């Protein structure tokens, strides 16, 4: 079994160098008052391509064998990883094909194309994504790169937590959203190896709660349904992240869409941070008061800011 260590995350950070932004950590006294805790927001929505996923994409591409890079790569993505991989491929001269669900935000489809990636639409189901990727990978001879289920991806995503804990070394906990689990898995590797260790929590929508159900059951459960305003999290958790999450994550908190929209609105209105619904899920979990009361200083990773302005969630309420 291939694992991910802190040394892997540190090597990824060195490999990425100045090609990713060291995003700021912001605070808000008003939001702290709402939460009853001190919150530290790692602003990955200000990262290149608008999300943390450029970290894993660049790390994975830079680890490819030359022959695989020559044949090109393919992935499936609701948008953020597709943008990140397209941008990484453009800078490395690697052809990138991105399979996207038909209901992926138009802004994300346009961004993938803008970075030089080829977009192929598929039915908005996990099976539709899988079948389309398998067919195209065979036709193109391209190497499949998962958005979450690979050690190089997890190590790259963990570099965000590496920066956060270095900047705010006395955190009690870090919480991230969880879809495929790459970000949460990488964060858990870093948090559990910190001195002293930092507790790590995940947060996911009620309409895509396979990680919370898996933890409760003690085994990796497949996604049974996927429906949420947090479209970026509507993917099944990968097996590589699960191996980390099951032993190094304290808990995964489930929140409903109304709480996600409220948290997103709060971040926009009070902190002037334009984040997408998926990025607001961890704050929704904190505001719900579901973290242990003993945890006072909480790091929150704001995972992305690629918002479809023509489909803001509060416009449909």
Q: Brief description of this entry?
A:
This protein is an alpha/beta fold and about 325 residues long. It contains 13 helices and ten strands.
Task: Describe this structure as you would to a colleague.
The chain has two domains: 6-49 and 150-316, Rossmann fold; 54-144, Rossmann fold, CATH 3.40.50. The chain has helices at residues 6-16, 29-35, 53-62, 66-71, 80-92, 106-114, 126-140, 151-167, 182-193, 210-217, 239-248, 257-271, 277-287, and strands at 25-26, 38-43, 73-76, 96-101, 118-122, 143-144, 173-177, 199-205, 251-255, 297-302. It is α/β, with parallel strands linked by helices and 317 residues long. It has 13 helices and ten strands. The model has no long low-confidence stretch (mean pLDDT 93). α8 crosses α9 (182-193), α9 (182-193) packs parallel to α11 (239-248) and α12 (257-271) packs across α13.
The low-confidence runs, each spanning 5 or more residues with pLDDT under 50, are none
Structural class estimated from helices and strands: alpha/beta
Mean pLDDT: 93
How many strands? 10
Summarize the helix and strand pattern as letters: HEHEHHEHEHEHEHEHEHHEHHE
Strand arrangement across the biggest beta sheet: 1-2-10-7-8-9
Measured as a percent range, the helix fraction is: 40-55%
How many whole angstroms does the radius of gyration measure?
18 Å
Name the shape in a single word. globular
Tell me the distance between the termini. 46 Å
The domain tally reads 2
Our count of helices gives 13
Q: The CATH topology of the largest domain is what?
A: Rossmann fold
Biggest sheet, open or closed, and with what strands and sense?
Answer: 6 strands, mixed
């Amino acid at each position: 079994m291939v694992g991910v260590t802190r040394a892997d995350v540190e090597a990824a950070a060195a490999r990425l160098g100045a090609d990713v932004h060291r995003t700021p950590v912001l605070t808000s006294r008003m939001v702290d008052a709402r939460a009853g805790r001190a919150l530290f927001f790692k602003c990955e929505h200000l990262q290149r391509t608008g999300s943390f996923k450029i970290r894993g994409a660049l790390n994975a591409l830079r680890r490819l064998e030359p022959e695989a890079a020559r044949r090109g790569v393919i992935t499936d993505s609701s948008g953020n990883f597709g943008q990140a991989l397209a941008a990484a491929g453009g800078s490395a001269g690697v052809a990138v094909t991105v399979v996207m669900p038909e209901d992926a935000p138009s802004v994300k489809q346009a961004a993938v194309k803008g970075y030089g990636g080829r977009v192929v639409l598929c039915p908005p189901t996990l099976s539709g994504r899988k079948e389309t990727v398998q067919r195209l990978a065979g036709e193109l001879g391209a190497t499949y790169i998962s958005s979450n289920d690979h050690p190089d991806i997890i190590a790259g995503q963990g570099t965000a937590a590496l920066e956060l804990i270095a900047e705010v070394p006395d955190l009690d906990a870090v919480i991230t959203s969880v879809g495929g689990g790459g970000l949460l898995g990488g964060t858990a590797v870093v948090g559990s190896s910190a001195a002293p260790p930092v507790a790590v929590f995940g947060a996911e929508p009620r309409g895509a709660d396979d990680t919370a159900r898996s933890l409760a059951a003690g085994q990796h459960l497949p996604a049974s349904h996927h429906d949420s305003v947090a479209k970026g999290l509507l993917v099944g958790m990968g097996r590589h992240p699960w191996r980390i999450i099951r032993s190094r994550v304290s808990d995964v908190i489930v929140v409903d869409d109304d709480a996600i929209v409220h948290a997103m609105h709060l971040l926009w209105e009070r902190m002037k941070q334009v984040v997408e619904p998926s990025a607001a899920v961890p704050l929704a979990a904190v505001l719900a008061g579901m973290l242990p009361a003993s945890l006072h200083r909480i790091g929150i990773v704001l995972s992305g800011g690629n918002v479809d302005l023509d489909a803001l969630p509060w416009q449909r309420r």
